[in-house]
Amino acid sequence: MSSDAASQLDAIRQGxxxxxxxxxxxxxxxxxxxxxxxxxRLPLGQMNRxxxxxxxxxxxxxxxxxxxxxxxxxxxxxxxxxxxxxxxxGLATPSPGNDKITSRMSGLGQEWVPTGYPVEFLSLGxxxxxxxxxxxxxxxxxxxxxxxxGLNDTQESSLGLVFHYADKRGLPLLDxxxxxxxxxxxxxxxxxxxxxxxxxxxxxxxxxxxRQLITFADQGAEDFFGEPEFDAADLIRTTEDGRGVIxxxxxxxxxxxxxxxxxxxxxxxxxLFQDLPEVGDPDKPKLVFFFDEAHLLFRDASKxxxxxxxxxxxxxxxxxxxxxxxxxxxxxxxxxxxxQLGNRVQHALRAFTPEDAKxxxxxxxxxxxxxxxxxxxxxxxxxxxxxVTVLSERGAPTPVxxxxxxxxxxxxxxxxxxxxxxxxxxxxxxxxxxxxxxxxSAYERLTARLDQPEESAAAGPTDxxxxxxxxxxxxxxxxxxxxxxxxxxxxxxxxxxxxxSPAFRSMLRSAGTVIxxxxxxxxxxxxxxxx
Length: 531
Ligand SMILES: Nc1ncnc2c1ncn2[C@@H]1O[C@H](COP(=O)(O)OP(=O)(O)O)[C@@H](O)[C@H]1O
Ligand SMILES: [Mg+2]
What we know:
Elements: H1 3-15, E1 22-30, E2 33-43, E3 51-54, H2 61-74, E4 79-83, H3 99-108, E5 119-124, E6 131-133, H4 137-149, H5 153-169, H6 176-187, H7 192-198, H8 203-218, E7 246-250, H9 258-275, E8 287-291, H10 295-298, H11 303-316, E9 321-327, H12 335-338, E10 343-346, H13 354-365, H14 374-380, E11 385-389, E12 401-405, H15 417-425, H16 430-433, H17 442-447, H18 463-472, H19 492-500, H20 502-511
Parallel strand pairs: 3-9, 3-10, 4-7, 4-8, 5-6, 5-7, 8-9
Antiparallel strand pairs: 1-2, 1-12, 10-11, 11-12
The structure holds adenosine-5'-diphosphate and magnesium ion.
Residues 55, 57-63, 101, 104, 383-384, 405, 407, 412 line the site of adenosine-5'-diphosphate.
C-alpha cells in the first residue's frame, strides 16, 4: 500500500466516523481489497439534504436503494419507494442468503441478519395488487397534468386558465370526465361568453387539449384520477415496535405509462410539502422518498415544470423529507436539482460509445477532487460497488470513497405473490381507498339538469338549488357526505343537451359575476386541500 493510499484510507476512516444516528453503506475498497475498518456511513440527519443513486443498468442501484430503505425502517424512519420493475417487494421477505452474500458480508466484517421489513403495497389506480391510489384532477393541477398530456407551453397555460375557471365557479374537477365536461362547455356555443371572459384561452387550443384528454382517457387513464384521493400523510407511519413503514408503490403494471407515474410521484411530493409542518434540520428525516427512473420525470419537461420540481426539492428539505433520485447518469437530472443532491452513490458507468465517454466525463466533474482517478474507477467498479460521497454531520462533503456495499437483509427480487396479497388484504389503508367514489362534481353539475329527481340530492343539485344559483350566481355546494356511487360510462351527448338548456346558460352567466371559492394553488398548481 502506498502512503497516498494509506492517507486516503485514514481520511475515509475519519470522514465517515459519525457520532449521531446513521446508516452503514459498506466499507472502502483499496487495491481490490475491502478494508473492513474503513466503514462508509451516511448520517440520518443529512438525509433531508437529498441524494442521487446513479449507474448503468445492472450495477446495483435498486439493491442500494433496498439496503438504505431497510436501515431507515429499522431506525424508525418511514420510506416511500417507487418499485418500477417489481424487484423491491422482496423487502417484506427475509433474505434466504447465498454464497455471494456470505462472502460479501464476511469481507465487510459486518453483522448480517436475514430480516423482513414492514411494507405497505400500493398500486396506481388499482393497476396491480396493492391498495389503489388516485388523485383528483383538481388536486393534480394544470402543470402536472400538462406534463402527463404532453402539452406545449401555450397549451399548458391555457389548461391553467381552464382550472382557474373551474376553481372560480366551484366546479370540482375530480376525474377526467369532469375536466372534459368543463372544456367541452367552454368550446361550445353556449360557453362563448365564458371563454371570452377567460382571455388568453383560444377555442382551438381548448379543442386540442380536449382531444389530448380523450386520447389519454382512451389509454385507460381514467383509473388514476378520482376519489378517494390518496392522503400523503399516510406515507408517514411507524409500526407499534417503532419501525418505519416502507411504502412500496408497485409500478410494473403501468410501465408503459412512465410519464404518468413519474408525474404522479411528483404529485405525492407536492402533497407532502403542503401537508407537513416545518421542522428545520431534524436529527433524522420524517420520510425518505426514493424516486426511481427519475430521468422519465425530466425528459421533455416544460420550463414551468422543471422550475416547480427544483422548488419542491429545495423546499421539502425543511419539512424533514429526503428525496433520493435514482437514474443512470447525473446528466439525467437538471442542474438546478442536481446541485441540491448532497449525498451521492455512483455505481459503475459504461464507456463504450463517445456518448458514454461524455457522460462519464460529466459525472466525474460533479465530484469533489480526490486521490482517485475517477474516470478509471467508475468504469472498473464491480456490481454492488460504488463511489460514495455524502454530507457529514456538519454538512461538509465527505472524502470520496470507493465502497463495497452491504448486501440487503431482505430478499433481492420480488416477494411471493401470496405474501403481497396477504399484506394487501390485511392493510389498514385498504378500507379507506379500495372502493372508487364518483361524487357530485363538474360533470354531474354540468349534466345535472337532465338527472332524474330520484337520483337523490347527493347526486347533483336540485332544481331549487339550481334556480337559486341562477339568481344568486353561486353554485350549490355538494352534499356533505354524498352517497358513494360506482362509476358508470356516460354519454357525451347528455352534456350537449344540458349546455343548450336556457336554465343552464343563465346559471353559468350569473355564476360568472360572483367569485365563488377559488382554490388556492401552490407549487405545480396543485390544489391546497381544504381539510
Ligand atoms: N449490494 C449488493 N449486494 C449483493 N448483491 C448485489 C448488490 N448490488 C447488486 N447486487 C447484484 O446485482 C444485481 C443487479 O442489481 P440491481 O440493483 O438490480 O441493478 P440496477 O438497479 O442498477 O439495474 C442484483 O440482482 C444482485 O444480484
Ligand atoms: Mg434497478
